[in-house]
C-alpha cells in the first residue's frame, strides 16, 4: 500500500565533509523548536525551508566570508536578490538613483516595474560623478544603485565617492558585484551598504544553477530575510549545494580566468583587427571592439571554436556575447548610444581552458 514513510531523522555520529543537501520542505518540531521559533519571530530553528534551510545557510556563510560581510542571504536568482533588496529599502522612501549601464533585466526593473509601482527612478551615467551628485542632491533619495563594473564597457564605478554622496544625502548604496566578484573587490569595504550578486555567474562558476545572494550587516539581512519569506524568492537546497560546491574552487578558477584575461588583453591590444579593448585591469571579463561594426563582430564570434556563444558569464567555459544582439537587443539606436555600446563590441567571460589555445582561437577568428 502506498504509505508515506516517516523519516527516522537519522543523525550520523561523525560529521560530513560537505554540507548534506537538506531536500526537505519542512522539519519535525518539538517543544524546544516551537519556543525558539516563537522567540525569534520565525527565524530561529529550521522549521520550513522558505524561512531557512541548513544547506542554504552553508552557502550563505561562504559568500558572507568572501565579501567580508556580517551576514548573507541566498535567493532563487540574482534578480530575486536585487528585487527583494530594492523593494525592502524602498519601503522607507520612494526614490532611487541608478547607473544607466546596468544588467538588462535590472534595467527593466528600474525603468518599467518600479515606476509602475509608483517609485521614482533617475538614471545617470555610471562614470559621471557630477551626474551622480546632481541626481542624488536633486530630491530626497532612498537608494543609490550601481554595478562595480559597468556592462559591457567594464568601467569601474567610483564606489567610495558614490558611497559618500549617497550617505551625505541619507541614502544607502547598493552595489551589484557580480562581474567584479569578491576576488577583485569587496564593495562593503569601500563604503557600500549592501552588495547583491548573481551567484549564477562566477561564484558558482559552472553554469549549472540559477541563484542570488545579498550581503550586508546582520540587521539588514534579517530585514531582507523577512521579505523573502513574503515575496517568496528563497533558494532551493539542491541549488544551494551547487553554489556551495562551486565556491570551493572560486579562488583557483579566478586565478586562471584572470591570468587568461590579462594575456588575452595584451594580444588583442596588438591585433590590427581590434579597434579598442576594455579591461579594468583585474578579473575575468574582457570587452573589445572589432573594426567593421556589428556584422563583422558577429562573423568573428561565429568562427570561434573554443569560446562558446551564450548569454551568461562566469563559468569554467569561456562564453562570448555581442551585447547589441543579446543583453541589449531591445535598446533603440539612441539608447545604445546613451549606454555607450560601440558597434562591433564583443564581451568575453574568460573560463579556465588552456590560455594559449583560447587566445589562438580568438586570433584565428579575427584574422579570417
Ligand atoms: C546575471 C546577472 C544578474 C541576474 O542574475 P540571475 O541569476 O540571472 O537572476 C544581475 N546582475 C548582473 C550583473 C548579472 O550578470
Short overview:
This protein is α/β, with parallel strands linked by helices and 368 residues long. The chain is built from 13 helices and 12 strands. Pyridoxal-5'-phosphate is lined by residues 77-79, 103, 106, 147, 176, 178-179, 198, 200-201, 210, 212.
Helices and strands, with pairings:
Blueprint: H1 31-39, H2 54-66, E1 71-75, H3 78-89, E2 95-99, H4 104-116, E3 120-124, H5 129-138, E4 143-147, H6 159-168, E5 172-176, H7 181-184, E6 194-198, E7 212-216, H8 218-231, H9 237-247, H10 250-269, E8 274-278, E9 285-290, H11 293-302, E10 308-309, E11 319-321, H12 333-338, E12 345-349, H13 355-367
Helix pairs in contact: 2-9, 3-4, 5-6, 10-13
Bound molecules: pyridoxal-5'-phosphate (PLP).
The site of pyridoxal-5'-phosphate has 14 residues, from helix 3.
Integer count of domains: 2
Low-pLDDT stretches: none
Bound molecules: pyridoxal-5'-phosphate
Largest sheet: 7 strands, mixed
Query: Could you estimate the helical fraction of the residues in percent?
Result: 25-40%
Proportion of residues in extended strands: 15-25%
Q: Note the overall shape.
A: globular
Per CATH, the superfamily of the largest domain is Type I PLP-dependent aspartate aminotransferase-like (Major domain)
Number of helices: 13
Reading off the top of the CATH hierarchy, the class of the largest domain is best stated as: Alpha Beta
Protein structure class: alpha/beta
- The radius of gyration over CA amounts to 22 Å
Count of distinct strands: 12
Architecture per CATH nomenclature, i.e. the level-2 architecture of the largest domain: 3-Layer(aba) Sandwich
Distance between the termini: 67 Å
Instruction: Indicate the CATH topology of the largest domain.
Output: Aspartate Aminotransferase, domain 2
Q: What is the mean pLDDT?
A: 94
